[in-house]
């Protein structure tokens, strides 16, 4: 019964999400697009952190590199062809992942975290301190890319609702791909590496190859999120590669719940909505300018009282209710 309900719930949620722009203001449509992009970004990191046990603080590098790539590869005053612009941007993120991952994955634990952070900061300063991407001022993407073959335009995402549906489709594709990946032999190997890498090596698995492949796949989807972000705003700057961006998406994964794909999505939704609430002058008045303080305290409280994340809250409540029932029965 519960399985049937979940099977029905997913398409219903997708249909509702697809139709929301028809009844919401432009502000809320833009907010939902932002949530979907960060949900995709969090899903890509969930593959590393929750599924493979690789805590990275350099994931923003792939997000930012792809965002810059789609902007630099697009013509300045004409639509680029997404048939090659988008794959090229993702390949740039994957290429950086192959180079940095081959080195970073030779370390473990805190050393892996610091090495990934270092590589992300290197990419940050390349765009910040050179004219490649406009320096600290960033660069603009004036025209969104379109899918065309010759003069035949198949898909034009310049329309806001079309871009909304395109972003939703990218999120669903990412979800579906990662869900199938984790149910495959490859996904089982990643889970085994997370639980006990030494035992997996003893069983004959090349754990380095599996981890590098997962690292590159995560970079690809992180890059997809980055290029969507660039297309959404039409502007990119070096802050997209800053360590704060990596920390933000890592916090989404932790807040939502590690190890399950739903956790990344729920964490992204919860974190962005919390930011919106604490920045609202309608709710907090003039104190809203200090939103970082209230936001930080809220995150500390959520992590402290929900150690398994938002996705583990129902299980936590059931366990508490069962303990209460057992205590009452014992008396």
Automatic annotation (TrEMBL):
Protein's membrane topology: Multi-pass membrane protein
Coiled-coil regions listed: none
InterPro entries, A to Z: ABC_transp_permease, LivM-like
Cellular localisation: Cell membrane
Gene Ontology cellular-component terms listed: plasma membrane
A GO molecular-function descriptor: branched-chain amino acid transmembrane transporter activity
Transmembrane spans: 35-54, 84-105, 110-127, 161-181, 208-229, 249-274, 286-306
Keywords, ordered alphabetically: Cell membrane, Membrane, Transmembrane, Transmembrane helix
PANTHER family named among the record's database cross-references: ABC TRANSPORTER ATP-BINDING PROTEIN, HIGH-AFFINITY BRANCHED-CHAIN AMINO ACID TRANSPORT SYSTEM PERMEASE
Protein name (Swiss-Prot/TrEMBL): Branched-chain amino acid ABC transporter permease
């Amino acid at each position: 019964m519960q399985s049937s309900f979940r099977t029905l719930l997913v398409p219903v949620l997708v249909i509702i999400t697809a139709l929301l722009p028809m009844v919401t203001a432009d502000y809320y449509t833009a907010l939902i697009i932002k949530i979907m992009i960060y949900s995709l970004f969090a899903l890509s990191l969930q593959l590393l952190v929750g599924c493979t046990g690789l805590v990275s603080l350099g994931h923003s590098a792939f997000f930012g590199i792809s965002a810059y790539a789609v902007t630099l590869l697009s013509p300045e005053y004409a639509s680029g062809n997404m048939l090659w612009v988008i794959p090229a941007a993702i390949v740039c993120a994957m290429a950086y992942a192959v180079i940095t991952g081959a080195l970073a994955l030779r370390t473990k634990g805190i050393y892996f975290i610091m090495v990934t952070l270092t590589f992300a900061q290197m990419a940050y300063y390349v765009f910040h301190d050179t004219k490649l991407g406009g320096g600290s001022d960033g660069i603009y993407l004036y025209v969104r890319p379109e899918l065309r073959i010759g003069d035949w335009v198949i898909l034009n995402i310049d329309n806001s609702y079309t871009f909304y549906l395109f972003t939703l489709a990218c999120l669903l594709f990412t979800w579906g791909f990662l869900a199938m990946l984790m149910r495959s032999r490859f996904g089982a190997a990643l889970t085994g590496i997370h639980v006990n890498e030494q035992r997996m090596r003893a069983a004959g698995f090349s754990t380095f190859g599996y981890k590098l492949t997962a690292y590159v796949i995560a970079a690809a989807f992180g890059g997809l999120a980055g290029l969507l972000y660039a297309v959404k705003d039409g502007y990119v700057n070096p802050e997209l590669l800053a360590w704060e961006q990596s920390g933000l998406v890592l916090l989404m994964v932790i807040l939502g719940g590690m190890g399950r794909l739903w956790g990344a999505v729920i964490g992204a939704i919860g974190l962005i909505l919390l930011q919106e609430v604490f920045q609202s002058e309608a709710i907090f008045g003039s104190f809203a300018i200090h939103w970082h303080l209230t936001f930080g305290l809220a995150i500390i409280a959520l992590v402290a009282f929900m150690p398994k994340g938002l996705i583990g809250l129902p299980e936590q409540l059931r366990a508490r209710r069962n303990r209460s029932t057992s205590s009452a029965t014992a008396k």
